[in-house]
Amino acid sequence: MSVGDFIRNSQVWKSIFRHPAPRDRRNRVVVMLTNVFLHLHPVSVRKSGIALSYTWCMGGLTFFLFLVETVTGVLLMFYYRPTLEHAYNDILALRDVATLGVLRELHRWGAHAMVITIWLHMYRVFLTGSYKPPREFNWGVGVILLVLTLLLSFTGYLLPWDQLAIWAITVGSNMARATPLLGYEGPGAKLLKIGDVELIHSGSDARFLLLGARFVGGETLLRFYVLHCVAIPLAVAMLIAVHFWRVRKDGGISGAL
Amino acid sequence: MHTATQLAHSVQIGLGVFYLFVALMNVGFALYQCYAANNRRQGIVWSLVAGVFLVHSLAYFAGANWIISAGFRDFTTQVMGYYGGQLGPILYTTVSIILFVLFLRYRKFFTEPVVAWSILNLGLLAAGWSLTDDNFRKIITKEDNVPIVMLIFSVGFFTWLPFRRAVLNDERMANGEPPMEKEEEEKVLVWPDLVYTEMIAMIVCTFVLVIWSVLLKAPLEQPATTAKAPNPSKAPWYFLGLQEMLVYYDPWMAGVVLPTMIIIGLIAIPYIDFNQKGNGYYTFVERKFAITTFLFGFIVLWCTLIVLGTFLRGPNWNFFGPFEYWDPHKVLPLNNVNLSDYFWLPLGVTFPEGQGIGGILVREAPGIILVLLYFAALPPLLAKTIMRPFFIKMGFVRFFLLINLFQFMAALPIKMVLRWAFNLKYIIYIPEYFFNI
Amino acid sequence: MADKSRRGFLRTIFGTWFGIAWTALTASAAGMTLGTIRFLYPNALSEPPSKFKVGFPSDFETGQVDNRFKDQNAWIVRIRDPQLGDIIYALSTTCTHLGCTPNWLEGEQKFKCPCHGSGFKITGVNFEGPAPRPLERWAIRIAEDGQLEVDKSKKFQKELGQWDDPESYVKV
Ligand code: HEM
Ligand code: FES
Prior knowledge:
The complex is a heterotrimer.
Chain A: H1 3-9, H2 11-16, H3 25-34, E1 44-46, H4 52-55, H5 58-77, H6 87-96, H7 103-127, H8 136-158, H9 163-177, E2 193-194, E3 197-198, H10 206-211, H11 218-249
Antiparallel strand pairs in A: 2-3
Helix pairs in contact in A: 5-7, 7-8, 8-9, 8-11
Chain B: H1 9-36, H2 40-61, H3 70-81, H4 87-105, H5 107-111, H6 113-130, H7 134-140, H8 146-174, H9 180-183, E1 187-189, H10 190-215, H11 240-248, H12 251-272, H13 288-312, H14 339-344, H15 357-363, H16 365-384, H17 388-394, H18 396-422, E2 429-430, E3 435-436
Antiparallel strand pairs in B: 2-3
Helix pairs in contact in B: 1-2, 4-13, 8-13, 11-12, 11-13, 12-18, 16-18, 17-18
Chain C: H1 2-14, H2 17-39, E1 51-55, E2 64-66, E3 74-81, E4 85-92, E5 103-105, E6 110-112, E7 119-120, E8 126-128, E9 137-142, E10 148-156, E11 170-171
Antiparallel strand pairs in C: 1-10, 2-3, 3-4, 4-9, 4-11, 5-6, 6-7, 7-8, 9-10
Helix pairs in contact in C: 1-2
The complex binds protoporphyrin IX containing FE and FE2/S2 (inorganic) cluster.
């Protein structure tokens, strides 16, 4: 008996994989059904639907990059403290002191790559007309995912706490200040007042909610950190689940009618 | 500032590697033409091209100092600076729109593999020569700008590919055949067909990412301080299209209203597009209107504006030619005039500061009327006249949603043209209530 | 007719136990949402005090922009105003476009914002670039000890005609 057979016949192996290796048709079906990760896929698909020249695998790569970001992000969190005192130096140390100083690079370039792949994914979904019935809803889910992905990148941009970060976020978040009615420099905000008391001022408007303060500072760093590391990733993960579920429920990857 | 006339050693090596890579690409293409496509003539042509690139490569390795001509560089800078420094953005936008139209019109020609390959080669050659310019190189190779170079190439490739397939499909359908996708209707098992494709994609992706991360350090500038803003201060690159809109509109429009309309518009696409054809295969002919509109938004208004914002906007958010030194003291007259001034000043009417709502409304009446006409009168007019067939087919709600989204999309080009032609600052100017359009 | 439908609506939401239950649930869910949003607005801010002293009026020269208090978000400027005479005022260092910090360029006699190129005259009035309105001025006064004191809790905007307010400048 070869070593391979010995392993495959052991009780441990069989407790994990409840069927023989996927070499024949039956077991290739079973493997898809008994594995929680593989069963994101259907058992069989239209040949045109999985051609690289059709999907460009961009949705899959976006998902993969999301996983890469999760893993590298968790690793970075072990060394990074979101306070004015530490943030910048922790990032410096990640480059100069940490072994394997490319984790920050992997995380940053992975994020940029994810923005590109998600655009290309949307581009191909549009060009194959795959948003048409019955997939209207999933296109909408996709648009929300796109917005959340951009917000993920945006909140992450502040964390190194360098000049690039603070001014990009200052300029970006000042747009919230200009939200109609809800930002204190937005059109109409001045009209919202009770007697002489203005309801919308620099300490009560949309930007204040985003920053947790009137200027980009320590409170903002903490807020963006929580959004970046917990709140938005959770939302994205949930929506990705909905998205994948709907790809299958809407009839699998689209194909010519 | 004049640029160095002697290339640094590291730059020469970099260019050598670059041209070697391009030469190898062409060798590959020549082999493909010779043996896979059985086209000897093409094989010979592309071998020659590969040879030209190889000569470049070897020359740079051997320390050649081939630099893009100073006359040409100065010429481009000068041209872009005409018309009060406005010719740059005007040329850039107009040329990208013209290219866009040409591409759609002559898509059959442009998607021919040999043509597309030639264009790619020309682009790489232009990039190679431009890289010998200090100013150009400094901006292109800034760490955070590298993704945009990738964006340009990947969007280019992924526009070529679907259009190539669309052209082929459209020809087939004109001949009464089904699209290619339909030929592959039979079902295949996900294991092994799909799972292995996915695994290979993941491996390639990881490989690229690791190489990228090892070669290129993530940027880290000076620690944050509120006292001194760097010049220019830019948003992250994927928002630079939005930042470019800030040149023409106030933050509440460019930063809030227009992005919100983009999101709403994207979500609304499936509900507006009533055309049932073109679902699940690449085609252009069957969906001309939808594809042209989307591409205009994505390619012209989003991607090219990102490129403009990243590479061509320098200190003080001035426009700089590709080879121009980013001089923080470059002065451009930016004196723009409001519509209300255009209207009232010749009539000799002036308005005092700090007046009440009534006075403000009179002052801004011309702009308010124009904007109201644009949003309230134009859509019904279109429904009655040239877009009547659309209106009948789509119904009331769909049609007005479509037209309104369209109007928001057009708002940017319209304001651009008004700015360039008339130095128009605001159509409506009510700073008292932060309501400027 | 309108009255009837209104009564119909009220009956739907309060008329049956079922209606009341759903109404109560909706109301409490809405209340909790509002409470959560309110929770996100901090009540205490760790901002530096809004008042600070900048020295005696005689420390400032006419036609000069004093950069020393830029960290505290103010330029102290002394000019000869055609109407008000010799005055000192405190300009906010926040660009009215998107909040970057402009730089005072002595040679060109203007504040230039690095982010999108807005230019402001020494008075704070915008004259080029995308900034929609002039820089703001802070309240300024002569304190009991004779020093100038800037108070950032009050601001004055030109487009609202507030620069004539005697609190917005000090006459020398
Ligand atoms: C985190 C972001 C996203 C992930 C991980 C993701 C993932 C995927 C995957 C794996 C597929 C299967 C087919 C393929 O790979 O092309 C898919 C299909 C689809 N996606 Fe996404 N996607 C994301 C964002 C988006 C966006 C931004 C849109 C559009 C605005 C979108 C719309 C769709 C639609 C309509 C389908 C069905 C396409 C078909 O049946 O041919 N998705 N997505
Ligand atoms: S923030 Fe000053 S010009 Fe935009």
